Amino acid sequence: MSRWPYVFFAAACFYIMIGVCWGMYMGISHDHATSPGHAHLNLLGFVSLSIMGGFYALLGKETPTWIVGANFGLMNLGVCLLAPALFLLLSQRVEPAQVVPVFMIGEVSILLGFLAFGAAVIGGLRRTGRAKAGSLKVAIA
Ligand code: HEM
Question: Full-prediction pTM beyond 0.85?
Fold first, then answer.
C-alpha cells in the first residue's frame, strides 16, 4: 500500500491535537468566541483529511500520485491559513481587512483541494467502469 493514507492520517492527528487543545482552552476560559475556528480546524483538518486518507487506503489506490499530492498539499495549505486567521479574527486580535487576503488564498486552496479529491473519486469510478466493461468482453468472447 502507498504511504499516502498514513500521511493523511498523520496530518489529521496533528490537527486534532491542536483542535482539542483549542476546545479545552475555550472551555477553561469560558470564552467561546473562537468556536467557529475550532470547528473548522477539526472538520477540515481532522474529519476531511481522515475521510480522504480512508478513501486512498480502500478505493483510490490507483489514483495518480500528482492528484493525491495536490489534494494533500492544497488541503493543508488551506487549513494552515484558515485556522490561525479565524482565531485571530474571532478573538479580535486583528481587523477583518488584515486577514482578507489570507482567507481568500485559504478558501481557494480548500476548494481546489476538494476538487482534486473529486477528481480522484471520479477517476476511480471511471476505472471501475472500464474494468467491468473489459471483463464483460472477456466473458462474451
Ligand atoms: C476535547 C475535545 C473538544 C473540546 C473540549 C471542545 C470544545 C468546544 C467548545 C467549548 C465549543 C463552543 C460551544 C459553544 O460556544 O456553544 C465547541 C464547539 C464546536 N466544536 Fe468542539 N470540542 C472538542 C472536540 C471537537 C471535535 C473533535 C469536533 C469535530 C470533529 C468539534 C466540533 C465542534 C463544532 C462543529 C462546534 C460548533 C462551532 C460553532 O457553533 O461555531 N469539537 N467545542
Answer: yes
